[in-house]
Specification:
mainly beta, 11-stranded antiparallel sheet, 4 helices, 12% helix
Length: 270
């Protein structure tokens, strides 16, 4: 089993009487579980909770210069300023954004190696480690597009690949990155913020207000999870409980025998 470390902030706002909670969760490899199967875990988490990453089910589309542009309403990738601060807890890895552009809203990132297969079957080695490897990366990031006439904030989605044909990941199906062969996925990051328009009254109109934030990073030696909900639903005790996202991550951990009942462990921290 992985080793769990948790830091949590929660409470109720005095003015609007809203319950809020934010969890920093780190699951680290141990002597009994020395390596986390990155592809298998992310694949299971996305199967259990498809809303964790952008798909066609979340988007609308428009045609622009002969290309399809995918659009999200009241949801964007995670910007650096939302997850980096001087108050970040010790379990947070400050290097999580190494190499990420400061103005990029990252929604999905994966990197690793592509195995270069021999032309002839008889040249195929017994061990994959003997094959030549080439690095690859695949990202989806968001960019502000516009406000609609109802005050919703619209972002466009932009996939980008290096060392990999973008045609292999059609229609923003990022889960395929965990299923393609011959790939070795070393790291996956995904994250987003969701919004709702907040009415200011009178002639002031409305502004977008952050409701939820999620960040998940998976490597071979650790899983980092950040969950925040600023207006917990009346029947919810933990962030992302009502949407099923937390349950999907919890189930993936149990299916791969990485950790048992993360939900209860987090609930005990409240």
């Amino acid at each position: 089993m992985l080793e769990l470390a948790v830091q949590v902030k929660h409470g109720t706002s005095l003015i609007r009487r809203r319950r809020h909670a934010a969890f920093h969760v780190r699951l680290s490899a141990t002597a009994l579980t020395p390596e986390i199967p990155v592809s298998s875990f992310v694949d299971q988490a996305l199967k259990n909770s498809p809303e964790l990453a952008p798909t066609l089910g979340h988007t609308s589309v428009r045609q622009e210069n002969g290309k399809t542009v995918f659009l999200l309403s009241n949801r964007r990738g995670r910007p650096r300023e939302s997850f980096e601060s001087s108050s970040a807890p010790p379990i947070f890895n400050g290097g999580i954004f190494d190499g990420v552009s400061a103005n990029r809203e990252e929604m999905f990132h994966s990197d690793g190696s592509v195995y270069v297969l021999p032309d002839k079957l008889q040249d195929f080695p017994d061990d994959l480690s003997e094959l030549k490897e080439m690095p690859f990366s695949y990202q989806v990031y968001s960019k502000f597009d516009r406000f609609d006439n109802r005050g919703n904030i619209i972002h466009s989605l932009h996939p980008q690949a290096q060392g990999l044909e973008t045609s292999l990941i059609e229609d923003l199906n990022v889960q395929r990155i965990t299923q393609l062969a011959p790939l070795r996925v070393d790291q996956v990051r995904l994250g987003f913020e969701t919004y709702s328009p907040r009415l200011l009254g009178g002639a002031f109109g409305s502004i977008p207000e952050v409701e939820k934030r999620l960040c998940l990073e998976v490597t071979a030696d650790r899983i980092y999870l950040f969950l925040e909900e600023r207006n917990l639903a009346s029947k919810s005790r933990l962030p992302f409980e009502s949407s099923g996202s937390l349950a999907g991550i919890n189930k993936a951990l149990e299916e791969l025998n990485l950790y048992t009942d993360l939900y209860t462990s987090l609930l005990q921290e409240m």
